[in-house]
Structures are given as structure tokens and as C-alpha cells.
Amino acid sequence: MNEPVDTSSIKYNSILELIGACSPNAMRELTSRFPEARAFLQRGLVLGGTAQIGRDFLIAIAQSGIDAAGPQVANLLRVAPARLSRARTWRLFASVATAVTSTGVASAAIVEAKIATIVGSLLTLASSLCGLVAQHLESPLFGGTSGLVETVELMLKAESELAALRIQMVTVQNDPSADVEGLLKSVNSVCAAVRRAQVQLGAKEFAT
After folding, report:
1. What pLDDT does residue 44 have?
2. Cα–Cα distance for residue pair 11/4, rounded to 1 Å
3. Is the pTM of this model over 0.85?
4. Per-residue b/e over 188-197, b at no fewer than 16 CB within 10 Å?
5. What pLDDT digit, counting tens, does each position of 97-132 carry?
6. Are the CB atoms for 50 and 171 separated by under 8 Å?
7. What letters, b where the CB count within 10 A reaches 16 and e where it falls short, cover 116-128?
8. How confident is the model at residue 136 (pLDDT cuts 50, 70, 90)?
9. Does residue 137 carry a pLDDT above 90?
10. Who contacts 52 (Cβ-Cβ below 8 Å, separation ≥6)?
11. Among the four residues 6, 64, 87, 159, which has the most C-beta atoms within 10 Å?
12. Nearest-10 Cα torsion for 14, 15, 21, 22
């Protein structure tokens, strides 16, 4: 059944934003399948209560969002841990340089005090620079102070939610009374989290 749905509270701009950025083919397919809903495939649009949008259209939007988010979450779960690993390596270098300087190993190994002072200063500078590089890798490009660990946790949660949403999608597709609006809201939330993580990490989207 493809009965019109009350769209007064439905919002799926994050789904459309993710599809538009990462799955242009899916956007073209939606436009082709639902030409009557072309106006509602505009990013950021909140559907009004008088819109005659069929249930099938909302299901298709939700499915496209799930399909677009899956590969992006997997990509982010590769990018973020890799950056976190590099940051920890830089922090290790900083710690080693600090330890060498603080224990006086450099001074003990070099007789001339002047050279020892220079070496100590260089080690201190290296420690500071390594710490700054690590901090840069761990910090988001935009969007607040949450770091890489928080982003990884967010994407792990999104991965789990997508698995549950795929199951819920089967129910919605086979049961006309199932809550398609709730499904759409959940998918939109996951897509918003993905886009936020992409912006924070500066991770490039790839077409699907």
C-alpha cells in the first residue's frame, strides 16, 4: 500500500545531504522513481502537513539513507583509528624526548656543556613539536572540542544502529502498520552523525 502519510513532523534533510554528497546515483534513482516528489528531494526541506507523500517514497528515502551511511561509517572507522594511532606515535616521540632531556642523558654523553645545552634545547623543542602534532591529529577540524576517541565511539554506535535499522526496514517494508516515520527519524539521526564526523575529521566522501 502506498497511502499518503501525514508529513507535518517529518524531516530528513541529513539523509538527503549524505545521499547528495556520497551517493549521487541514489539521488538520481529517487528522482526517477518518484518524479511527483521531486520538490521534496531538496536538502533541508521539512514536509508540510498538506503534502501528499506516499509511504513508499518515505521507505525509499530511509533505505537510501541506510545504504549511503553504511560505507561512510566503515570509511570513518578506518580513518579515525589510523589518525589516533599516528597521534599516539607522535606522543610517544614527545615522551621519549622529554625523558631523555629530564634525565640528563644528553648532558652525560657529551663533555662540552655548550653542546649539551644545544642538544637539550633541541630535544625540548622536538618534544614540544611532537606534542603539537599529536594534538593536531586528535583534534577535530570543526565542530567543537570532541576528539578522535569520541568520533570513533560515535561511529561504532552508528554502525550498531544501522544494523538494527536494517532489521527494522524489513518490518516496515512488509507491515503497512509499522512506524515508517520513526524509522526515517532514526536514519536521519545516523546520517547527521556521519556528516558531522566527516566534517570533524576532514574525511573525503567517496561515491557509492
Report:
1. 46
2. 16
3. no
4. bbbbbbbbbb
5. 666 666 555 455 554 555 555 555 666 666 666 665
6. no
7. beebbeebeebbe
8. low
9. no
10. 4
11. 64
12. 140
Largest CA distance in the chain: 88
* DSSP 3-state of 5: strand
CB contact at 8 A, 207 and 31: no
- Would you call 182 exposed, middle or buried from its count of C-beta atoms within 10 A (0-12, 13-18, 19+)? exposed
Cβ atoms within 10 A of the Cβ of 7, count?
19
Helix (H) or strand (E) holding 102: helix 55-103
Q: Is 140 helix (H, G, I), strand (E, B) or coil?
A: coil
Query: Which one, of 19, 20, 105, lies nearest residue 64 by Cα?
Result: 19
Helix (H, G, I), strand (E, B) or coil at 175: coil
User: CA-to-CA distance for 61 and 187, rounded, in angstroms?
Assistant: 9
CA distance 86 to 137: 8
CA 119-97-93 angle, to 5 degrees, is: 135
In single-letter form, the type of residue at position 51 comes to A
**Rounded mean pLDDT of 79-103?**
67
Q: Round to whole Å and give the CA distance between 13 and 17.
A: 6
Residues in the chain: 208
What distance in Å separates the CA atoms of residue 180 and residue 129, rounded to the nearest whole number? 52
Element (H, E) at 54: strand 53-54
